[in-house]
Amino acid sequence: MLAPRALILRAPGTNCDHETAYAFERAGGLARRVHVRALVEKPTIMDDCQILCVPGGFSYGDDIASGRIFALELRLRLGDALRAFRDRGGLILGICNGFQVLLQTGLLLADPATGAARAALAHNTSGRFIDRWVHLRAAAGPCVFLKGIDALELPVAHGEGRFVARSAADLAALDTAGQLALRYVPDARNASTNPNGAQADVAGACDETGRVFGLMPHPERFVDATQHPAWVGRLDPAASGAGLAIFANAIRSC
């Protein structure tokens, strides 16, 4: 059998595509980095792929807002193709800037009746870019990428990562449906590890099927034990990092 294929979609300013491709290949898949302009010219590139990932970075310099220009380009030029990929059962993952993009394209957490966004990612309450490690807990629910995962530690690096629901009713409904899939949790040293002021400590969310998932932390930056800043004396250097499980779940699902 051929290994599952992951398409890593990049744009000017994307800077995590190589690491993300490595993570999928480390998990047993085949990864292909594709520029958005190439996909616009030939959307059938997605036909041979089972996974689509929008990686992290600063697409188009985040000049208007994080992920805004990239999301507009995808929605206007590839909207039908992306929805068809999703509807045929393809997995879609958005990491950091990619999470911002998925929310703004309507591929994730869109109101089924109106298509309006039910959540957004706003500026951190600190008003500053944050780069640190956080502790996370996965919620029980449909998310394919988090199957069998309870807790994990990953790095975050963003200036606009504060999850904000459109309304209290939307937040409650998403929570009840298990779509608020990943949350920041306290660790032994801190009363809270919520780095950005996100509502309900939300760090990641999925659609109702669990096959579209966006998260602010960077799992591709912790697929090998030695990528952790405190691995010496704590982790086996030959071991996998906690983030690899997210990519392994995607490959296994395919």
What is the oligomeric state here? single chain
The average pLDDT score comes to 95
Spell out the helices and strands N to C: EHEHEHEHEEEEHEEEH
Radius of gyration: 17 Å
Overall spatial form:
globular
β-strand percent reads 15-25%
Kindly identify the CATH topology: Rossmann fold
Which sequence of strands runs across the widest sheet? Answer: 2-1-3-4-11-10-9-6-7
Helix content percent band? 25-40%
CATH architectural group = 3-Layer(aba) Sandwich
The CATH superfamily label reads Class I glutamine amidotransferase (GATase) domain
Largest sheet entry: 9 strands, mixed
The count of domains is 1
Number of helices: 6
What features would you describe in this structure?
This protein is of the alpha/beta class and 254 residues long. The protein has one domain: Class I glutamine amidotransferase (GATase) domain (Rossmann fold), CATH 3.40.50.880. It is built from 6 helices and 11 strands. The strands form 2 sheets. The protein has a 9-stranded mixed beta sheet. α3 links the parallel β3 and β4. α3 crosses α4. The longest helix has 20 residues. The protein is globular and about 50 Å long. The model has no long low-confidence stretch (mean pLDDT 95).
